[in-house]
Design a protein that fits this description.
CATH class of chain A: Alpha Beta
Shape of chain A: globular
Strand order of the largest sheet of chain B: 2-3-9-6-8-7
Radius of gyration of chain A: 17 Å
CATH superfamily of chain A: P-loop containing nucleotide triphosphate hydrolases
Distance between the termini of chain A: 15 Å
Number of domains of chain A: 1
Strand content of chain A: 25-35%
Strand content of chain B: 15-25%
Bound molecules: adenosine-5'-triphosphate, magnesium ion
Structural class of chain A: alpha/beta
Strand order of the largest sheet of chain A: 6-7-8-3-9-10
Number of strands of chain A: 10
CATH architecture of chain A: 3-Layer(aba) Sandwich
Shape of chain B: elongated
Oligomer: heterodimer
Order of helices and strands of chain A: EEEHEEHEHHHEHEHEE
Number of helices of chain B: 24
Number of domains of chain B: 4
CATH topology of chain A: Rossmann fold
Largest sheet of chain A: 6 strands, mixed
């Protein structure tokens, strides 16, 4: 595929410094990377290396101390939180390690949330489609507590893509699941990436999972250690 | 010991948690509110006893138809009490060719032991004691009737006595208007003249005074004796009906307000404890998983709670003492004879009650917390799989009822409050559930903000229900305090409007009526009312002469022997209620009489019984046509016996006039009465002022308590909103991550809280209306009181708005939490 077009997601000299109880702490330093539309991109590294922090910056959940992050041409650090929220709503989907479903909503209602935020009328129908796509159409009315971990994560994935985002961010989406279930969930993510050309940015320590991505970076103490192997 | 140390350490670590602080603050408020009110009430009670003593002339005593046996005197002296003897009887006094029936009291030189005997001689007023042998004091009416002045002589019972002074006022048991002219003479003189011998109609009294404990002790001894035939104890509680009623109502008011604030605090405690339990669940699950026994967990929780409660209770007691003393210093001038020492016990009792509130409301969630199964470490949802209906939750309800019972001193007040509050709680819970059910139905089609708000409420169904219930309970209490209590007080005040008759005129003759009325109206007198007054005796019931009847009730025997006051009117007087038969009206076919309930009971009268009265030369047989319940605490002249005007009008009688005369006209009035000579004036302004003062003081105290309750209400509000804060924060972070705009979150929260506020506000307004209605009739005897619906609804709406604004203010923090939180949480 042609990569000459502008990258969908781009970080340039991104650093993050936080003030902790024992003085300031540089969590990220001089991270530069680019992810193109439709790519799958892995962020790997040891625990505490700054993966989650980087993901948060790329998704516009937080702003860098210095440097710049561009999502679909918008400089995230230059716009306010409301505008970032608008961008997230339109362009981004999330999958978390611990699912983060609302316990009082049914699977279907959880999936409807992003559509409801946009004020769409076809929320229920589309949520149903999304749940069917992850193989949970029979569990629509179940509450998260009535679902297994893998099933909850599939609901979370349905919620992440139901509104057709351009980028899907996943922070250790298989971290809480056994190997087989994990693989099934990963299959779903990569299928989305393949079938809908949804860009996938994946944080993981799982080498095999990282290896399924087209590209990636390895972080080490907040810096890019090496571009991950491209298979 | 180890457990205690662990508990203290836990407390120190967790003191920063808002739940624990709410718990402590609520407990503090409960103890302070209960303590201040109990302390003030106990002091007021002391003041009441003291002022009753002023009216009795001693702290307590016995009265009997014969001289009291020596042991009564000896026992009193043994207890270091001062003692006085006196006797009261009717007797005719003569001066020249004039004669007058007088109410005579014969006393020793020690009388009165309490209160003041006020005398006037040669234009000087002074306080005095019983008259010396050979002398006598006469009141103005007696002087006028006999045509005497100080220094003249008067014949009574064959004695020739010098009038040493004019009797201005005396301890008289709190009679509103003494009907006959009064006189005081020496007890030894009366004995010497044979006025007190067997067959006389004298009533002998022995009064004691001294240290309260000694008086109580003597009373207890006297009660244990078989009292002589026809004897009665004289106690402060029995005297002073009018004041007593005012004080009782005042007490009910104060207790009501204190109770409501304590219950408010209880609700806050329950909410805080529940939230604390939720927060502690993972920790307890871990402890249990690590092998800590359930009993030890519970012990630790109890010890922690105790370590929190003890200093709080202590502080509460100290603050209550301080505030009660402060309030007393500000308002104390009203009760001159009130004990100066601060009563310490009531505040300690309040601390005990605070502990009960804490235990009742906080223990259930903690006891359940100890039940958290160890497997909950793996699955948080396991912790919640505990029985839904839990008998433990009856505990707070029982504690609340017990508190109400114990504190209100009146089962009725307790029941009314308990029922109203339960109805409100159930109603609020039902309404909330209904709304949530409804929310699920309508949510899909609603405006997005409303949909999100409804969805949010529905999402936390249990919490929302708990919140709505707690908020409405809190609001009922607040509305009762802020709207209903002042309205009730106002209603009470209206019973004594500014133009309540403050003067009575006795002895007005038929031919003086129009002229006297004109003179009064020129002075600016208002509310003039005249009642005929005849003095006679009951001579027969159903044709049997009374001296042939045997009465089981000694009171009946005494009345049968006495001069009775009779009056007649065509319309039922205010503060009278017909409870049996029907009111005769102005012109019944035969002579009819209406009796008061106490007479019905004493004489065992039934409708249709015939009573014969002799009045002067005349006589009348009347049929009992109705029985009246009379409010003797009203400031009107009331009668046990009321005849119909058509048949009684011809009996010899004088008139009793009552009217309102603004302050400052007493001198002019005295001149008018001098022109008539035979009239006697009675001024009841002092009594009226006293009751108005009580109402005002209660109003002031209620305002004090209202301050506490507003604080407690704020705590309830904060605690109720805080119950969902954690969930709310997590939810908001998630929605922010999914791209929700701040405005969306805010609008959703506004809808959510406005709905919650509306449910709570409306049920509370309804509840306060019902409770107010019922309280007014059941406890405060204000039969035409209607709680002000407008202010109640206004208050409810205001509360809804405040809840919405507070909720919104709370979400400001929530909407500002970084969405990164979710990623950090894993
Ligand atoms: N707000 C903060 N204040 C202080 N330190 C922080 C903050 N956020 C992150 N850190 C620190 O920054 C470092 C990187 O954190 P981050 O969560 O990004 O690591 P990670 O690579 O995602 O680790 P893991 O694989 O364990 O999830 C850690 O050492 C963490 O303690
Ligand atoms: Mg991480």
């Amino acid at each position: 595929m042609s990569e000459s077009s502008l990258p969908l997601l781009e970080a340039r000299d991104v650093s993050k410094t936080v003030r902790g109880p024992e003085g300031t702490l540089d969590i990220l330093a001089d991270v530069t990377l680019a992810v193109h539309a439709g790519e799958s991109f892995a962020i790997v590294g040891a625990s505490g290396s700054g993966k989650t922090t980087l993901l948060g910056l790329l998704a516009g959940l937080d702003t860098p101390t210095t440097g710049s992050v561009r999502l679909d041409g918008h400089a995230l650090e230059a716009i306010d939180e409301e505008a970032r929220a608008d961008l997230r709503r339109q362009l981004v989907g999330f999958v978390f390690q611990s699912f983060h479903l609302l316990p009082a909503l049914t699977a279907e209602e959880n999936v409807m949330l992003p559509l409801e935020l946009e004020g769409r009328d076809d929320a229920r129908a589309r949520a149903r489609e999304a749940l069917t796509a992850v193989g949970l159409d029979t569990r629509r009315r179940h509450y998260p507590a009535q679902l297994s971990g893998g099933e909850q994560q599939r609901v979370a994935i349905a919620r992440a893509f139901v509104h057709g985002p351009r980028v899907l961010f996943a922070d250790e989406p298989t971290g809480n699941l056994d190997q087989r279930t994990g693989r099934h969930v990963a299959d779903l993510l990569f299928a989305l990436n393949r079938d809908h050309r949804t860009t996938l940015v994946l944080v993981t320590h799982d080498a095999t999972l990282a290896a399924r991505c087209a590209r990636g970076v390895e972080l080490m103490e907040g810096r890019i250690a090496a571009p991950a192997a491209i298979t | 010991m180890k457990l205690l140390r662990l508990a203290l350490r836990t407390l120190r670590r967790e003191w920063h948690l808002p739940e624990l602080r709410t718990l402590a603050a609520s407990l503090l408020l409960a103890v302070v509110a209960l303590g201040v009110v109990a302390t003030l009430a106990s002091r007021v009670e002391g003041g009441l006893v003291a002022s009753a003593a002023e009216l009795i002339g001693g702290d307590a005593g016995v009265s009997a138809p014969q001289a009291l046996p020596q042991p009564y005197l000896d026992e009193a002296r043994q207890r270091d009490l001062t003692v006085t003897r006196s006797a009261g009887f009717p007797s005719v006094a003569f001066a020249g060719e004039r004669g007058q029936l007088l109410d005579v009291d014969a006393t020793d030189a020690a009388w009165p032991l309490r209160g003041a005997l006020e005398l006037a001689a040669h234009g000087v007023t002074s306080a005095g004691h019983g008259p010396a042998p050979g002398t006598m004091y006469l009141d103005h009416r007696a002087m006028v009737a006999l045509g005497l002045a100080v220094g003249d002589h008067v014949q009574l019972g064959g004695l020739d006595l010098a009038v040493a002074a004019e009797l201005v006022s005396q301890p008289d048991g709190g009679q509103l208007v003494a009907m006959a002219p009064r006189a005081l003479m020496n007890l030894a003189d009366a004995q010497r003249a044979g006025l007190l011998g067997v067959g006389s109609r004298a009533r002998h009294r022995l009064l004691v005074a001294g240290a309260p404990a000694a008086v109580r002790d003597w009373l207890a001894w006297a009660k244990a004796q078989a009292l002589p035939q026809g004897a009665e104890l004289i106690t402060p509680a029995k005297t002073q009906q009018r004041m007593r009623n005012a004080f009782d109502r005042a007490g009910s008011f104060l207790r009501l307000t204190a109770l409501l604030s304590a219950l408010l605090a209880g609700v806050a405690i329950a909410l805080a404890a529940q939230r604390y339990a939720r927060r502690k669940t993972p920790e307890i699950a871990l402890l249990r998983a690590l092998g800590t026994a359930r009993t030890r967990v519970f012990g630790l929780l109890l010890a922690t709670l105790g370590a929190l409660a003890l200093p709080t209770l202590l502080l509460g007691v100290l603050v209550a003492w301080g505030l009660a003393e402060g309030a007393w210093q500000l308002a104390g001038a009203a009760f001159v004879h009130v004990p100066t020492a601060l009563p310490l016990l009531p505040a300690l009792g309040a601390a005990a009650m605070g502990l009960a509130v804490l235990a009742g409301f906080a223990l259930p969630p903690l006891a359940r917390l100890a039940e958290v199964p160890p497997v909950a470490v793996f699955r948080a949802s396991m912790a919640r799989r505990v029985r839904r209906v839990d008998v433990l939750y009856l505990v707070p309800a029982l504690v609340a009822v017990a508190l109400l019972w114990n504190q209100s001193g009146s089962a009725k007040l307790a029941i009314i409050l308990a029922v109203s509050l339960s109805v409100v709680a159930v109603l609020a819970a039902l309404l909330a559930l209904l709304l949530l059910w409804f929310a699920r139905r309508i949510a899909p089609g609603a405006h997005p903000a409303l949909r999100l708000g409804l969805a949010a409420l529905a999402r936390r169904r249990t919490l929302s229900t708990v919140q709505a219930t707690a908020l409405s309970l809190g609001l009922v209490a607040l509305l009762l305090l802020a709207v209903v209590a002042p309205a009730l007080l106002e209603g009470w005040r209206r019973e004594l409007p500014p133009d309540t008759p403050n003067w009575f005129v006795l002895n007005l003759q038929d031919d003086q009526r129009t002229d006297f009325t004109d003179r009064l109206e020129k002075l600016g007198a208002q509310q003039l009312n005249m009642l005929p007054l005849a003095v006679g005796k009951l001579t027969a019931i159903n044709g049997t002469p009374v001296d042939q009847l045997h009465f089981a009730d000694p009171g009946a025997a005494r009345w049968a022997d006495r001069q009775l006051r009779l009056s007649w009117t065509g319309t039922l007087p205010p503060s009278n209620k017909v409870v049996a038969g029907h009111w005769a009206g102005a012109t019944p076919a035969r002579a009819e009489v209406s009796v008061d309930t106490s007479w019905r009971d004493m004489f065992g009268l039934k409708i249709g019984d015939r009573m014969r009265f002799d009045v002067g030369e005349g006589s009348l047989e009347a049929t009992v046509a109705s029985v009246r319940e009379v409010d003797w605490s009203s400031f009107r002249v009331n009668f046990f016996l009321l005849l119909d005007p058509a048949h009684a009008g011809s009996l010899p009688h004088t008139w009793l006039a009552s009217f309102y005369l603004p302050h400052g006209h007493a001198q002019a009035l005295a001149e008018v009465s001098r022109d008539y000579g035979n009239l006697s004036l009675v001024d009841v302004d002092a009594l009226l002022d006293r009751v108005r003062e009580i109402v005002d003081q209660v109003g002031g105290a209620v305002r004090w308590v209202l301050g506490f309750s507003l604080l407690a209400g704020a705590l309830v509000l904060a605690a109720a909103l805080a119950t969902s804060a954690a969930e709310r924060r997590h939810e908001a972070a998630l929605l922010r991550t999914l791209g929700a705009r701040r405005g969306q979150l805010r609008l959703a929260a506004a809808c959510e809280f406005a709905l919650l506020g509306l449910i709570a506000g409306l049920t509370a307004a309804l509840g306060a209306f019902g409770a107010g209605w019922w309280l007014a009739r059941g406890v405060f005897r204000l039969d035409d009181f209607v709680p002000p619906l407008g202010p109640l609804l206004g208050g409810a709406l205001l509360a809804a708005v405040v809840i919405m604004l507070l909720g919104l203010a709370g979400t400001r923090k929530v909407t500002r939490t970084s969405p990164m939180r979710l990623l950090r949480e894993g």
